[in-house]
Design a protein that fits this description.
By secondary structure, the chain is of the alpha/beta class. 31% of the residues lie in helices and 23% in strands. The protein has a five-stranded mixed beta sheet with strand order 8-9-10-13-14. A four-stranded mixed beta sheet has the order 16-17-19-18, sandwiched between helices. Strand 6, helix 8 and strand 7 form a beta-alpha-beta unit. The longest helix has 18 residues. It is globular. It starts with 12 loop residues before the first strand and ends with a strand.
């Protein structure tokens, strides 16, 4: 059973949930890519090669859990859980004959179909003539595991997704978690069918400490959803401070706060300076919480000032270094999106060379993923280091290493 415990973005990682991209990434065309939330179609073989290195690094530093394995072993192989999943997807799709498609499949085929797209049952002329031949679309974005759920304390929060094409991810994850989680932990569903405007995604939620959250509001996360999350979290732990960062709705590189700000340790953070620390119209708000009640709410200068007021001091490292042109270019390719698996030990894209140089100037040794895996570098010689992975295709999907990971347990 899954144990959950996440009280920071940088604690020593004990287990992480991932999904390796597969044919669902290719189950789109240039005409449907925008609906699938892609600006272009990906080259799957290259994306898989890049992801394989990423996954191998994770396997070397922590216990890796595959969502496909949870789906197969904890849902598909258990008739009651399997029927619950089929019923939930029928309600979502409004197609009441999904069992006709799914019941005769082997367990492996069932698992594959859930992820790669459930075909419309060919039981009517209207279904036969529809251009879209899926009752439930392929989970094109499923490898960005952070978005559809996130962990705070010993609770997994299942996101309320902003885009229709991603809603099945939350439905599936909710059922998987409830059938997989340890009894000492919790699952909290944040979506509500009657409140489609209340949306929140995991890429917008950073855990600074057990008492301090950083949340982005923009194209995917609404203020109303933040209010709801504060109430939910306060039921399970003593939440004291929530810092809100407003984000642009465009361009797509600002989709979540973790595209402009990530925590590297208990004293350093990666910052896209023009938005987070620059003079602009996007505000930072500090909320003081007591037993789920907002006692004070006010604008503050920026996130670093807000963290300081919450008793947490951070030194920024700038995405792209000191040049704004380079900052803009590298932020576009997830240059501020790092996954921290231990304080000062992080994973990022190799292509963002100026960001890597900025980290190196702050004492981070830059190590290629290949050298890390081959043992060509003695990592014990370094207190802080960046492991780089190739990302020519993965970055084009619209996310980085933090987006592709869902931590379950940290110490």
């Amino acid at each position: 059973m899954l144990k959950v415990g996440v009280n920071s973005e940088f604690g020593n990682l004990k287990s992480v949930l991932i999904h390796e991209p597969g044919p669902e990434v290719e189950n789109m065309t240039p005409a449907t890519a925008e609906r699938a939330l892609y600006s272009d179609i990906l080259n799957l073989p290259i994306a898989r090669d890049e992801y394989s290195i990423f996954k191998s690094i994770l396997n070397k530093v922590t216990h890796v859990v595959e969502i496909r394995d949870l789906l197969l072993n904890n849902i598909v192989k258990k008739p009651e859980a399997k029927n619950e999943l089929i019923h939930a997807l029928e309600n979502y799709s409004k197609v009441q004959d999904l069992s006709l498609v799914l019941d005769n499949l082997s367990d492996e085929q069932f698992t594959k179909t859930i992820i790669e797209g459930i075909p419309l049952p060919q039981v009517s002329l209207s279904n036969f003539l529809k251009q879209d031949q899926f009752a439930v679309n392929p989970l094109h974005n499923f490898f960005f595991m952070r978005d559809a759920s996130f962990s705070i304390g010993n609770t997994i929060y299942v996101s309320s997704m902003a885009r229709t094409v991603r809603k099945p991810e939350s439905i599936i994850l909710d059922i998987i978690y409830r059938h997989s989680i340890d009894e000492c932990c919790n699952v909290c569903l944040l979506s509500d069918e009657d409140e489609s405007n209340i949306t929140i995604e995991g890429g917008d939620v950073l855990v600074a400490s057990p008492e301090v959250l950083i949340i982005g509001i923009g194209s995917r996360t609404t203020p109303e959803a933040v209010d709801r999350l504060i109430q939910k979290v306060s039921q399970f732990q003593d939440l004291k401070t929530v810092l809100i960062q407003e984000l642009p709705h465009e361009p797509e590189s600002f989709i979540h706060i973790d595209m402009v700000f990530t925590l590297l340790s208990d004293s350093e953070c990666m910052v896209y300076k023009p938005l987070v620390l620059g003079e602009n119209r996007y505000h930072t708000i500090k909320m003081d919480i007591d037993n789920g009640i907002i006692k004070k709410i006010a604008y503050v200068k920026d996130l670093l000032k807000g963290l300081h007021l919450a008793g947490l001091d951070y030194k920024p490292v700038y995405c792209g270094g000191g040049n704004q042109l380079l900052q803009e270019r590298e932020q576009w390719h997830s240059g501020a999106n790092f996954f921290t698996f231990s304080p000062g030990k992080i994973i990022g894209y190799q292509r963002n060379i100026h960001t890597a140089e900025a980290l190196n100037k702050h004492g981070y040794e830059v190590i290629s993923g290949y050298d890390f895996l081959d043992g060509n570098v003695n990592i014990d010689n370094y207190k802080k280091y960046l492991i780089t992975i190739e990302g020519s295709e993965l970055a084009r999907g619209g996310g980085g290493p933090r987006c592709m990971t869902m931590p379950l347990l940290r110490e």
